[in-house]
Write a structure and sequence with these properties.
Blueprint lengths: L2 H21 L3 E11 L2 E11 L3 H12 L6 H11 L13 E13 L3 E12 L10 H14 L2 E8 L4 E3 L1 H4 L2 H11 L4 E5 L2 E5 L4 E5 L10 H7 L15 H11 L11 E10 L5 E8 L6 H9 L7 E3 L2 E3 L1 E10 L15 H11 L4 H5 L4 E9 L5 E8 L3 H12 L7 E3 L2 E3 L1 E9 L13
Parallel strand pairs: 2-3
Antiparallel strand pairs: 1-2, 3-4, 4-5, 5-6, 7-8, 8-9, 10-11, 10-14, 12-13, 15-16, 15-19, 17-18
Amino acid sequence: MSTFKSIVFILCLLKYSLGINAQLLGMTIDDKCLVQFNKTNYELTAHLDIPEGEGVQHYLAKLIFGEENCDVKTAYDSFLKNWHKRDLHSSRETGGEITINIKKEYEQDGSFACYHVNASVSGTIKLSGLPQTPEAQKMKAQYFLLSNGIDHGFIIDTQKHEIIGIDQIFIPSAAQSLKGIFGDDINIYAEDRCLQLSSKKNDGRFIFSETTKKHFTDYFRYLVGWDELKNCDSPRFLRGEEGLKKYLADNKFLIASDNEEADTIIVSLIISEDGTPLQPTIEKSSKYLSEKKILDLCGKMPKWVPAYQDGKPITKEAFFTLRYPRVFGAVEKMPTFPGGKDALMRFLARNIRYPEDAEDSGIQGRVGCSFIVECDGSITNIRITKSVDPSLDKEAIRVLRSMPKWNPGTVKGEPVRVTYHLPIMFSLSMAPNGGRRNF
């Protein structure tokens, strides 16, 4: 081989090698677009916090996209190509949604990071009529991976860029015991002296202390450095505020958004040395929520991260606050009149008494009304939002007060207070004399 050809070959090899290494570096991808499967569009939302390291990326590429020996970005680009990526606004019709997330949830500088992978498909994808080409069959395999749902958490040694498994965290006897309890597919999350394990079989938390640290390997203890962490003055919920919100959502507890009128509920707890929440006390409550529901919620809480003093966990009081909505504007299942909308129209038609002075004056129009449907279906807080005439407004309020109880609105199966807007049409044709009293 000539000198010139040798130089070209070396440069090409170097470029190829650098390209591979660049793909294996950590990066973040945010994407929102349309993809197409068997002539149907699906809205794809992807957030990928891609960690550094060949082994980690090969693991993720296979877990999410079914790709062997491939970095995540290449696997994702291949997925978009096979699924015919299109601009988000190129079509208004979609058959469902696809979500792919790799999220870095926590990182302790220079030692480890926690990641969570979530992927799912909503809507029905048509598999019939799919061509028997390799590309189409690959798409089909990827669809089955995503439609089965991926929900997996793991820890990475950020020095070695390797995934840390149960066998690297716990000594052999403890690891074997935990596999029997949780199974082989275990989600792992670690943060400030607390380790969370979860699977389809079980869920548990382990607080790092003088009593429990003997179950951890020397490698893991050295990596996380929990023996040397500074004092922690206050107990806290694992994953902080986001973790608490997720726990509340998983237990169907309603949290007010920032722009909703809400009551602030304050709860105190005693967090023991092992993180167990004890003696819940409601310091400030809401008349719209039973105290029993709050106490039941506290009774089911998982372990917290306890306070530490001189490197040892201590028992200490903790507080958390909740914002509970006083009233909702829109909910998953809106309130309904008994028998539905047709029954409501019949009720109004039978019960409205057209005011004589409005009929004499030839006044008609649409009166805008609002009211709150309480959790028990009763109607309160009736208001006129658009007035036509005082007599018509008064009659609208009277007939609304006479309504029977409604079927309340619900969120996640729980009855809630909902503001309902109802326009009531007053037409002279409804009056006893058809609006002809002056003629």
